[in-house]
Amino acid sequence: MNLFKYSSPATFYPLAGKLAPWFGLAAGLLTVWGLYIGFFRAPTDFQQGEAYRIIFIHVPAAWMSMFLYLVMAAWAGVGLVFNTRLSSMMANALAPTGAMFTFVALVTGALWGKPTWGTWWAWDARMTSELILLFLYLGYMALHASIEDIRRADKACAVLALVGAVNVPIIYYSVKWWNTLHQGASVSMTAAPKMASIMLQGMFIMMVAAWMYSIAVVLTRVRRIIRERERQTVWLRELQTEEATA
Amino acid sequence: MNWNSLDEFLHMGGYGLYVWGSYLVTALCIAAELLMLWLRGKSANDDSFTENNA
Amino acid sequence: MERAGFFSTLIWVLKRDLLVAMRRRGDLAATLFFFVMVASLFPMGVGPEPQMLRIMAPGIVWVAALLASTLSLNRLFASDYADGTLEQMLLSPEPLSLLVIGKMLAHWLISGLPLVLISPLIALQFDQPVESYGAMLLALLLGTPLLSLIGGIGAALTLGIRGSGVLTTLLVLPLYVPVLIFGSSAISTSASGMDISGQLSVLAALLLLGLAATPWAISTALRIAVE
Amino acid sequence: MERAGFFSTLIWVLKRDLLVAMRRRGDLAATLFFFVMVASLFPMGVGPEPQMLRIMAPGIVWVAALLASTLSLNRLFASDYADGTLEQMLLSPEPLSLLVIGKMLAHWLISGLPLVLISPLIALQFDQPVESYGAMLLALLLGTPLLSLIGGIGAALTLGIRGSGVLTTLLVLPLYVPVLIFGSSAISTSASGMDISGQLSVLAALLLLGLAATPWAISTALRIAVE
Amino acid sequence: MLEAHNLQCSRGGHRLFSGKSFKLDPGTLAWIRGRNGSGKTTLLRTISGLSPVDEGEVRWRGRNIRKHADEFRRELMFMGHAVALKEDLSPLENLRILMQIAGRAISAPAALSALAAVGLKGREHLPVKYLSQGQKRRVHMARLRLSRDCPLWLLDEPLTALDAEGVAALQGLLEEYLRKSGIVVMTSHQEINIESVQSLHVQLPA
Amino acid sequence: MLEAHNLQCSRGGHRLFSGKSFKLDPGTLAWIRGRNGSGKTTLLRTISGLSPVDEGEVRWRGRNIRKHADEFRRELMFMGHAVALKEDLSPLENLRILMQIAGRAISAPAALSALAAVGLKGREHLPVKYLSQGQKRRVHMARLRLSRDCPLWLLDEPLTALDAEGVAALQGLLEEYLRKSGIVVMTSHQEINIESVQSLHVQLPA
Ligand code: HEM
Ligand SMILES: Nc1ncnc2c1ncn2[C@@H]1O[C@H](COP(=O)(O)OP(=O)(O)OP(=O)(O)O)[C@@H](O)[C@H]1O
Ligand SMILES: Nc1ncnc2c1ncn2[C@@H]1O[C@H](COP(=O)(O)OP(=O)(O)OP(=O)(O)O)[C@@H](O)[C@H]1O
Ligand SMILES: [Mg+2]
Ligand SMILES: [Mg+2]
Fold first, then answer.
1. Model confidence pLDDT, tens digit, residues C180-210
2. What's the number of CA atoms in the CB half-sphere (13 Å) around residue E44?
3. D99 CA from centroid of ligand 5 (Å)
4. Residues D142 and D54 sit within 8 Å (Cβ to Cβ)
5. Exposed site from A138, E179, F11, F189, fewest CB < 10 Å?
6. Band of the pLDDT at D162, cuts 50, 70, 90?
């Protein structure tokens, strides 16, 4: 069955190797295009002046961070249920990228917050939930790092990721709700009144670029992981000797 | 076209620090990730090579 | 020698953990002590303004409860793992999740219930309106079992891992957030004399979810840890 | 095989505990983020009002410190006691207090120092005035070792002796309080731009006292525990 | 009853054993032998279902033990290296809890008489941490006595820390159990002499 | 060298032993025998100075060991029931730390060769928690090898969990040590056959 064919590292490894560069290329081109629009086509925002141009990385990063966690949990779950090696590897490959985007969202957000709200950090709903998300990522990676036996690490982290995934929406909405409670003090991050369509367009392109980047990086990382784990398997040795001779 | 001069472009209407700061951070993060990925790949390679030779 | 019934087994596991706790009251005391310490730490910093204290009280109580319950987490399964009892539990014909429930119940009785009981003292310290006491007790009564359940997952996942005990907490605290939010808002809302059925029902719902899901998660984690 | 010098022994004990606690750099990172996580809980309890958080900040930092040190305390001597290492230490020709110092130092490096390092970030989260950063670092630098030392006494006393936990807590509690009071007041005072040499010198004095007395106290407690 | 079909197990890259197959009928004692680190404990844990196999399967009454874990566990008595005793509880409490966890409730008198039978009279209520090494193991002997109706025993080094008299008692217990057509799989570095219906040596290479 | 003057010890009201006196000269092996719970471990710990005596005293080179603890400890090697190993550290690390705590620094190569000599080659860097029971004990055999210049050994059940080959190795080690005029006080339920210069049986009543 086709799906299971590609769920085997042996077949997936070369496939990923072929695909990754193309996604990488796409990511590069889209970034250039998006930034061109963002900086040269999109007009100055009448409220925030030029500061808003952070949005072109901030928002894509923020959304990627949340989305990647769910994807990661999904892979982990599949790995736990069907016990397919590749799925767990995918989950592992996703974590660092997700954490990276989370971090970027936080820092760019902070850098955006200073000019707009005059403070680097405010306990705003989205910021807070992003921070928690960062901890979820870090917990996942820390747990995986501290279990020597990789199979065990995969399973344990899968459980953690699933529990986390169940909680992410609960956390997100409870934080939202918490924030509305204290509306008085919190800063509003409500969408700037009318973002010119060109801004949205730029943001959208950057979003797609972030997508492409993630896919490219994750595929490459999966290849690394396969290499590290399947070292003693025959197919990989053959492949490597080929590469070595070639 | 928003900018008449490179200066103006870098100044970002007074928000240069924040805008460029965030883009710089992002660039650095991505660079770091790619670097780590590369290193990991290298080590994986070397190991599997020693394995092969052994 | 008749087949042991489900519940008698659960009761025995519960009884055992309680006995051990009673024999060495250290852990119990440590938890309570920590709870009180944390709660009494803030009035000093804040200074005279009592209304300020009144505002932060609920949050402080809950954070204190959160952290206090994480203190005993490391030892939750670790000792069973070390002395081989866990193996015996995994080989028990009774469903593992049943034994797990027993242990979690014990953990709550040891580390959660005392906090609930002592909380009025702290409310007094932060002179909370007397009306809010009931709400606080209710909220804690619904919330602390959740802390034990969620904490159990973290404890099971980090079983047999070296470290300073920080990892377990790092895994668990983010998951505590909803409990913290609704729990503390329940108290503060009731302090301002408003209706808190909303928060309480959310906590109740979360508790049900937890009771349904966590035993499974914990059992899985335990099996993973031992194999 | 030459006679081992005093300090090489101390270093080895230190090294061992550090190894057991953190193998990788990742473990240190986990500890750092753990502190940020703990600090981040409070706003969700008490709400995001900045000026209130600003007031709570010192207390929050010290709660984090207290939590971290108590978390790793219960396993400080217990594991050595269980696996027989403690016997070996008691039979060592080197002075026991030396080995104890090694262990306490390790405990501080694992649970105290990371907080000192990350505290500026926490201060930023609760936007503290930049002037108070120095004070905070100093206070933590003086206070956290004390927490380790005091906790060490408690941990040693609870060993073996049955159900002595309560007693110990009551015994250790009064020792913790001054550290926490002066520690947090040092930070809050400096935040309001006043002179804090008073608090700092008290902390320093306490630390000297602790360094002088606790190793002896702990060693004695340990010998009693093993007999 | 108990069948192992070419079990294979490796740890950290090392292949411990492979192609291990055997079939044990009631009244059989299987003595797993091998040098330190040869994989005896691992094999025992594999049979109990505690640790997974790389290949092969274990069958009990013809059914895979992992698929029908519950029935299997109900008929299994596993005694590992670690004495699963709570230091702060008494032998009596520990024994009753262990039995309870194993799914077989026993009354206090039954437990007391079993403890007396293994020479722990007068120590029934003493916290286990005060017991001597051998006395701790004897608590498990009591557990064995109470599990004689349980068809499969897996014992890892049951003779450890027992004095001569204790060893003799345990051998007697095993013989009686085997006569009552029980199945024993055990590891032991000390020689055991049991004339059982049928006995099998599983030799593991170092 | 080592003298015990009518030692008496009781635990929780039970008198374990009393009036125990003996004198051990270099090259002597004292084998403490007795049933489970008769007080062997207690006696050994008393001699080491770990647990106090109700009456009597222990002398080393004619001086009370409690009064001159430091000199005594410098010449003592105690190996208890519990393997004093940190599960997360490697045999190498554990061994070096144990030696260091015993006041005798050793180089990594020395430690490695000692580990190899007791058959732990290839496991030097594996966390101890993955070692088999016997392999854990063998780490202590390595420690014994490195402590041959230490005049007094106190060993509690040193043969536990060792396979036949390991037992033989340990006996060889003991014989060599005794020939080099060391003193050994040990407990063991398993028979040991060592033709030493002089050997003494300390029998404890149950
Ligand atoms: C450290 C964390 C964050 C900071 C400091 C931050 C800050 C900001 C600021 C100052 C703005 C402009 C607000 C305005 O236009 O008035 C903004 C916009 C935005 N942020 Fe964030 N943010 C953070 C995290 C997040 C997260 C976690 C998300 C979503 C998951 C997010 C999604 C957005 C979106 C969609 C916008 C664009 C729409 C808008 O203009 O509001 N941000 N952010
Ligand atoms: N992660 C690992 N890496 C390398 N080797 C490992 C790992 N885990 C276990 N081992 C090896 O697997 C073996 C486990 O064997 P096991 O405990 O079954 O031995 P045993 O036959 O019971 O020995 P003993 O007679 O000492 O009890 C040991 O040799 C151990 O060193
Ligand atoms: N607090 C106490 N109350 C009653 N009896 C006690 C107490 N503490 C110890 N004992 C008894 O003292 C004895 C300790 O003996 P010890 O551990 O020295 O035995 P041993 O000769 O080493 O036995 P083994 O051969 O099993 O190792 C045991 O019989 C134990 O039951
Ligand atoms: Mg074994
Ligand atoms: Mg003994």
1. 989 988 888 887 778 888 888 999 999 999 9
2. 31
3. 27
4. no
5. E179
6. low
Q: Which of E106, E73, E76 is nearest to E92 (CA)?
A: E106
Closest atom of ligand 3 to F45 CA is 18
**pLDDT score, position F197:** 54
Say whether E82 and C84 touch across the interface (CB within 8 A): yes
| Torsion angle of C-alpha atoms D197, D199, D200, D202, degrees rounded to 10 | 120
Which of C201, C194, C104 has its CA nearest to residue C156? C104
Asked whether the beta carbons of D21 and D15 are under 8 A apart, the reply is no
Residue nearest to atom 16 of ligand 3 (CA): F39
pLDDT tens digits, residue range D46-82?
Answer: 888 888 888 888 888 888 888 888 888 777 888 888 8
Mean pLDDT (chain A) is 84
Say which residue the tokens 């890259």 belong to: E13
Quote the tokens at residue D195.
């002179």
C162–D188 CB contact, under 8 Å: no
DSSP state for residue C46 in the 8-state scheme = H
Residues E44 and E7: beta-carbon distance below 8 Å: no
Alpha carbon distance F6, F16 (integer Å): 13
Reply yes or no on whether the pLDDT at E196 is more than 70: no
H-run or E-run covering E152: strand E152-156
Q: Distance of CA C59 to CAs C42, C84, C183, D47, Å?
A: 11, 40, 8, 8
Token code pair at residue A155: 């399973």
Q: Which of D153, D149, D174 is nearest to D164 (CA)?
A: D153
Query: Ligand 2, from F135, F138, F159: best to mutate by most atoms within 8 Å of Cβ?
Result: F135
Nearest CA to ligand 3 atom 27: E133
- E34 forms bridges with which residues in the sheet? E204
**F204 CA: nearest ligand 3 atom:** 21
Write down the ipTM of this complex. Answer: 0.86
pTM for this structure?
0.88
Residues of chain F in contact with residue C160, where contact means CB-CB under 8 angstroms, are: 129
Is A189's C-beta closer than 6 angstroms to any atom of ligand 1? yes
Q: C94, C68, C66: which is closest to C5 by C-alpha?
A: C94
> What's the pLDDT tens digit per position in D180-216?
888 988 888 888 888 888 889 999 999 999 999 999 9
Selecting from A103, A111, A232 the residue whose C-beta is nearest the C-beta of B29 gives A103
Distances (CA, A) of C67 to B38, C26, C62, C71, D48: 40, 17, 9, 7, 20
Report the side by side order of strands in the sheet with F2-11. F14-24, F2-11, F55-60, F63-64
H/E/C letters for each residue in chain A? CHHHHHCCHHHHHHHHHHHHHHHHHHHHHHHHHHHHHHHHHCCCECCCEHHHHHHHHHHHHHHHHHHHHHHHHHHHHHHHHHCCHHHHHHHHHHHHHHHHHHHHHHHHHHHHHHHHHCCCCCCCHHHHHHHHHHHHHHHHHHHHHHCCCHHHHHHHHHHHHHHHHHHHHHHHHHHHHHHHHCCCCCCCCCCCCCCCHHHHHHHHHHHHHHHHHHHHHHHHHHHHHHHHHCCCCHHHHHHHHHHHHC
**Mutation choice for ligand 2 from F87, F132, F163, CB with most ligand atoms inside 8 A:** F132
Amino acid at A161: A
Which stretch of DSSP H or E encloses residue D89?
helix D85-90
Chains that touch A (3 or more CB pairs under 8 A): B, C, D
Do D157 and D169 meet the contact criterion of CB atoms below 8 Å apart?
A: no
DSSP assignment string, C80-142: HHHHTHHHHHHT-SS-HHHHHHHHHHHHIIIIIHHHHHHHHHHHHHTT--THHHHHHHHHHHH
Longest dimension (CA), chain D: 64
Q: In the C/F pair of chains, how many CB contacts fall below 8 A?
A: 3
Residue A182's contacts (CB-CB under 8 Å, 6 or more residues apart) are D47, D48, D49
